[in-house]
Specification:
Layout (H helix, E strand, L loop, with lengths): L17 H18 L13 E6 L5 H12 L3 E6 L11 H9 L5 E6 L4 H8 L4 E6 L5 H15 L6 E5 L6 H12 L3 E5 L14 E2 L2 H4 L5 E4 L4 H7 L4 H8 L3 H7 L5 E3 L12 H4 L7 H19 L5
Parallel strand pairs: 1-2, 1-3, 3-4, 5-6, 5-8, 6-7, 8-9
Helix pairs in contact: 1-5, 1-12, 2-12, 3-4, 5-6, 5-12
Amino acid sequence: MPRPFPHRHLLGIEQLSRDDILQILDEAEPWIGFGRGRRKQDQRLAGLTQFNVFFENSTRTLFSFEVAGKRLGAQVANFHAIGSSVQKGESLIDTALTLDAMRPDVMVIRHSETGAPHQVAEVVGCPVVNAGDGTGEHPTQALLDALTMRRRKGRIEGLRVAICGDIRHSRVAGSNMKLLPKLGAALRLVGPPALLPDDTGGIPAFTNLDEGIEGADVVMMLRIQRERMEASVSGSLQDFHARYGLTRARLERSAAPDAIVMHPGPMNRGVEIDGELADDPERSAILEQVETGVAVRMAVLDLLTRDRR
């Protein structure tokens, strides 16, 4: 018998114990090999309906959830706010209730408002997955990041992980700051003072990139939004790159000799990271994060729907 999952929804990392996280990672692992096979069809979600309800634009997250559901045999429908009744003023809850009346078996929600998936979970009759909410969380991104690290480095316990860039506004950073310490990683936060959170939860914070990534086993770069950069760092994009951009020379000078580079995407090449470094298969795990993301989302969809089939 498959091991049951103790949660109805996946809304954030806080709700997950260390064992819950490891269960997701362990169940995602076989799906990576499955995805590399010629035929990628499993029927465990056959007859179930998955709604991807995206109020924000997305490439990696939306497409990977769609691929994940279809590889598991689900009927997948994508909702986009543009062209919907949201444009006519319909509220989030009314939209959720309308979609729930169509009897989906799982909803994946992405929204610009922090806490929106939690609101939806209170009114619908199916499991809800948070695919990113405002500056809140992005739990499946943190899970796929953890699995990518474990596959590349052989462990997470004891890894020194530097998260660099716009920490204050990043839901990816928010979820990783909660997940990785549960698995024994040692975190550091690196960025301009205005882009660091007021409360780091005891995680060391650095405003100098070279100091922040010193000895790091994993360097995770985050996308910098131009309007936020202009408000926090004086000067041009070139000035920002000179102070906070990751280059091969900077990585090799400061980080651990076998350090890997990660980025949740989308990347600003030549701003937070050099394109040549991002494309280096020995150093960069960025495309592996994308592959791992499909596997993690397959595991999450499978776990949350086990009592519905």
